[in-house]
Amino acid sequence: MPDASPHSLNTAHDNAVVQIFTDVGLTGIGEVESNPWVIKAFIDASGNHSMDLGLGEILVGQDPTQPAIVWELLYRQSLMAGRRGAGINAIGALDIAIWDVYGKAAQQPIWKLLGGSQRRVVNPYASLLPCGNTLDAYRENLLAKATWARDAGFKAVKAEVMIKGPYAQPGLQESDEAIAELVAECRHVVGSSIELMVDVGYCWSDWKDALKAIRRMERHNLFFIETPLPTDDLEGYARLSRATDVRIAAGELLSTRFEFGDLLGAVDVLQPDVGRVGGITEAMKIVEMAANRGKLVVPHCWKSAIGVAATAHVAAASPNCPLIEFLPAPVSDSQLRRELVLEELKVENGTLSLPEQPGLGVDLNQDIMEKFTVTWGHLEAGVQAKV
Question: How many C-beta atoms surround the C-beta of residue 69 within 10 A?
Fold first, then answer.
């Protein structure tokens, strides 16, 4: 977005979108929530040996109807620069696009290729990130969005209470009491019949501090508390999960089943982002791992309707995925979220119907792609890159 601010918490203001073209005229699309310049570099880079190739040069000539085989090839031959983080994020964007091609080639929606549906509909929760650089403004915007979600028929809502810690809304560093008060007000607005979740954005550095704060909120019947501690504090997460009856959720930043294997015993709810974790192929492996341990999976999703579609297919084929994150377009200030695809999957009566179209079931709005593509000129190197 041209007015995107480096101080904003809204990561829907940019996007890394990939398109894969085939020799039979089929095109697949994918996306990932990561730094677009870095994702482009991983895909476009050239390598000099078999452990450090660029993803694009590995991908050319492969069979998109074999996504698991292609995934392993991409992982193995980008091992030195990839393996975790942005390298896996880039594989994830490509993997979504590969599944889109596979579905179109097979004339089937992806959820059918994943083994069929475990449910008739997918349940999205309205993920509500307010704006406002004072506590009063933040509260007013959050409660207005919660009111909108309730009236729109959502059966579940997540309040992003980002007012403390390293990723707080700029200008805000509030108390645990203020967090609890906002949660109480959100519960009052949405009523008792709507599931309520709370994202506090890694705001505590010590599990005992987090526990004291969570105990202030336990009476509000929360479905989960998301990311109360730093990502890598596995021991803290394990202790916190054992000490409270509120489910603890984490995992939005993790990549691969290997990192989720470390997290599996520490939290109640796993939150893989389908793009970031390595795509649909890797997300389904994490679903299976979690199901074997009796854990819930509630995928993170915060970009455009491309990611929504990919996440919906994963949820449809998963026995332990009761909800998916959903950024409602009407309350998003990102035109990319609202218009990047021609027609997104529709929420009706608080649910997403399973797509029946081949592949992902959504198509890029090429006009929006062209309008918001950014060209970056690097004067020293004399090269340009498009994102």
Answer: 12
Q: What is the pLDDT of residues 115-134, one digit of tens each?
A: 999 888 999 999 999 999 99
Taking Cα atoms as reference points, which of 126, 121, 102 lies closest to residue 279? 102
Beta-ladder partners of 377: 384
CA distances to 10, 12, 50, 337 from 303, in Å: 9, 5, 33, 6
d(CA 217, CA 181): 9
Q: Where do the H-state alpha helices sit in 45-109?
A: 55-59, 67-77, 86-106
Say yes or no to pLDDT of 2 above 60: yes
CATH number of 11-108+365-386: 3.40.50.450, 1.25.10.10, 3.30.390.10, 3.30.950.10? Answer: 3.30.390.10
- Distance between CA atoms of residues 266 and 233, nearest Å: 9
pTM over 0.85: yes
Q: Give SS3 for 20.
A: strand
How many Å apart are CA 37 and CA 314, to the nearest integer? 27
Give the list of residues 6+ apart from residue 132 with CB closer than 8 angstroms, or none.
138, 139, 140, 141, 169
Nearest to 322 by CA among 28, 96, 159, 125: 125
- Report the C-alpha gap between 308 and 110 in whole angstroms: 13
CA distance 355 to 33: 23
- φ, ψ (nearest 5 deg) of residue 197: -120, 160
Tokens 């810690």: give the residue.
Answer: 165
Cα(126)–Cα(135) distance, rounded to whole angstroms?
22
Relative to beta strand 375-378, strand 383-386 is: antiparallel
- For residues 122 and 316, the answer to whether their CB atoms sit within 8 Å is yes
pLDDT tens for 53-108 read: 999 999 999 999 999 999 999 999 999 999 999 999 999 999 999 999 999 999 99
CATH number of the domain located at residue range(s) 121-353 in this protein = 3.20.20.120
The domain ranges of the chain are 11-108+365-386, 121-353
List, in order, residues 6 or more apart from 242 with CB less than 8 Å away. none
Cα–Cα distance for residue pair 6/9, rounded to 1 Å: 8
Rg (CA), the chain: 20
